[in-house]
Amino acid sequence: MNMLNVSSRRFSLVKQLILITTLCFTSLSFAQQASPTTQHEHQVEQSTTVPTTEQATTNTADNEDTQTALTPTVISENSQQATPSLDHDLSPWGMYQNADIVVKAVMIGLLLASLATWTIFIAKLFELLTAKKRLRQEMAALRNTKNLKQANEVANTFSKNSLATSLIDDLQEELELSADSTSHEGIKERAAFRQDRLVAASGRKMNAGTSILATIGAVSPFIGLFGTVWGIMNSFIGIAKSQTTNLAVVAPGIAEALLATAMGLVAAIPAVIIYNVFTRSISHYKVMVSDISAHALLLLSRDLDRKSHTASTATTRSNVTKIG
């Protein structure tokens, strides 16, 4: 009996071992069958997830492209709304047309002043050159005369507007008016005074018009500055109305204002230079007239001395005759 019990126990243990082994193999086979299905499901999930991610990336890129494409348009529209369209002509004529009425009046006045400057320059230059040339010729002709009578004969060959002829005729007139005078020194003083007046009158005549040049040269910069100040005031008013400090908006108005100052300088600088040139040239002209006057007075003094010497000689001879 004991032997049977032991055998039955051994047999039950073997059964248990066989059962456990069978269960292990069964579980392993089931695990192997389940793992491919899981891998397939993972692949399906990955294939489903990847397109979704790519789609999201593509959608994001499309949105960025759309925003990038729309951004310049929005910026350009905003810039167009913030900055008004600028069609200003920045040429001198265009700035004049866009300028204020006061600035236009200033520019027109300065333009007329510049035209007056160049007109006076051309006319006075021709007058001075002609007068100097005539004086040189007359001085060369009178230099060889020995007395006032010869000088008068030579002067009669000059033109009617000759200044040398006027000087010599004035001396002849003084001699005729002082024919009864016995004081030769008085005649010389009166003749010199009359000659000085003629020389001064010739200088004043030649200076005619140069005072306009001096006025233009002194006043034009200030007139241009007035136009500039007025234009800048209008520019500031425009800035306040448009509520923008954009240089593209402000610059045209300031340029129009500064054009007035430029025109003032254009009118003033040539006027000052021409005035100084004419001042020196007229001074030289007056020196030439004074030379002719001095030569005529020299001839007068010589004639009076000869007349005095002749009178004294005649008186001496008459006294000698009476004594004899």
From TrEMBL:
It is found in: Cell inner membrane; Membrane. This is Biopolymer transport protein ExbB. Residues 45-67 have a biased composition (Polar residues). Belongs to the exbB/tolQ family. NCBIfam families: exbB. Involved in the TonB-dependent energy-dependent transport of various receptor-bound substrates. Protects ExbD from proteolytic degradation and functionally stabilizes TonB. The accessory proteins ExbB and ExbD seem to form a complex with TonB. Its main location: membrane. Keywords: Cell inner membrane, Cell membrane, Coiled coil, Membrane, Protein transport, Signal, Transmembrane, Transmembrane helix, Transport. The keyword Transmembrane helix applies. Residues 125-152 form a coiled coil. The chain crosses the membrane at residues 101-126, 212-237, 257-278. Residues 1-31 form the signal peptide. One of its GO terms (cellular component) is plasma membrane. GO terms for molecular function: transmembrane transporter activity. It comes from Entomomonas asaccharolytica. The lineage of its organism: Bacteria, Pseudomonadati, Pseudomonadota, Gammaproteobacteria, Pseudomonadales.
